[in-house]
Write a structure and sequence with these properties.
A hairpin with a 6-residue loop joins strand 3 and strand 4. This protein is 33% helix and 25% strand. It is built from 6 helices and 7 strands; from the N terminus they run βαβαββαβββααα. With 195 residues, the chain is of the alpha/beta class. Strands 1, 2, 3, 4, 5, 6 and 7 form a 7-stranded mixed sheet that branches. The radius of gyration is 17 Å and the shape is globular.
C-alpha cells in the first residue's frame, strides 16, 4: 500500500519536482489535494521553526504525515539578514521580489563583502517523529540584477563555482545544485530507506 505524505505547499512546480524523485511507494499530496486552503502562519524566528510550524499544522488538523520547507537568503555583511524574513524583507505584505532585491542592493551598496548563502530547511513529521533536512548553497550578491528566470533573489545570487546568477543559469542547472535540491535529495533518500 502506498504511503500518503502531504507536502505543505501549493507550488505545483515544487510538488512535481519532488514527486518525480520519490519511489512509487509514496503518494505525494499538496495542500489543495487535502482541501487545506488556510494560509498557514509562519511566525517563528528561524527557518527551522517555520518549516516545523507548517508541518505540525497539517499533522494536527488533518492527522496526516507531512513535510514543509522554508528558505532564506543569509548575507554575511548583514549578519545573516534577510534570513527568515527573506520573502517579506521590503515590508510585511511580502513576496514582492523587486522591492526585496532593491532593499538588499541598497543595504549593500557600500559593502565590499558580498558573501551570501541560500539555506533551505525541510521539516518532516512521520509517524509522530520529527526529522529535519538542510541544504546550503554558498555564493555572493551581485551589484545589479542579471538574468530573467527563477524567482525571489535569483537575479542577484551567483553560486560558488559559477559566474552566472541563478536567474541566468536556468531551472535545469539550478534544480541540480540549489539549496532546495540538496535538502530534497536528503529527504528523498530518507523516505526511500523508510518505505
Amino acid at each position: 500500500m502506498k504511503r500518503k505524505l502531504v507536502f505543505a505547499t501549493n507550488n505545483a512546480h515544487k510538488l512535481e519536482e519532488i514527486s518525480a524523485m520519490l519511489n512509487d511507494k509514496v503518494e505525494l499530496l499538496s495542500l489543495k489535494d487535502i482541501h487545506c486552503h488556510v494560509d498557514i502562519p509562519e511566525t517563528a524566528d528561524t527557518l527551522e521553526g517555520n518549516a516545523l510550524l507548517k508541518a505540525q499544522y497539517i499533522c494536527e488538523h488533518y492527522n496526516m504525515d507531512c513535510f514543509a520547507d522554508d528558505t532564506g537568503l543569509e548575507v554575511e555583511a548583514l549578519n545573516g539578514a534577510p534570513g527568515v524574513y527573506s520573502a517579506r524583507y521590503a515590508g510585511e505584505e511580502g513576496h514582492d521580489s523587486e522591492a526585496n532585491m532593491k532593499r538588499l542592493l541598497e543595504e549593500l551598496k557600500n559593502e565590499e563583502n558580498r558573501k551570501a548563502r541560500f539555506r533551505t530547511i525541510i521539516a518532516l513529521i512521520l509517524n509522530g517523529e520529527v526529522y529535519k533536512f538542510e541544504g546550503i548553497v554558498k555564493g555572493h550578491i551581485l551589484r545589479e540584477k542579471k538574468g530573467m528566470t527563477g524567482f525571489g533573489y535569483d537575479p542577484l545570487f551567483v553560486p560558488e563555482g559559477y559566474i552566472e546568477s541563478f536567474a541566468e543559469l536556468g531551472e535545469e542547472i539550478k534544480n541540480q545544485i540549489s539549496h532546495r535540491a540538496q535538502a530534497v535529495q536528503k529527504l528523498v533518500k530518507f523516505l526511500q530507506e523508510k518505505t
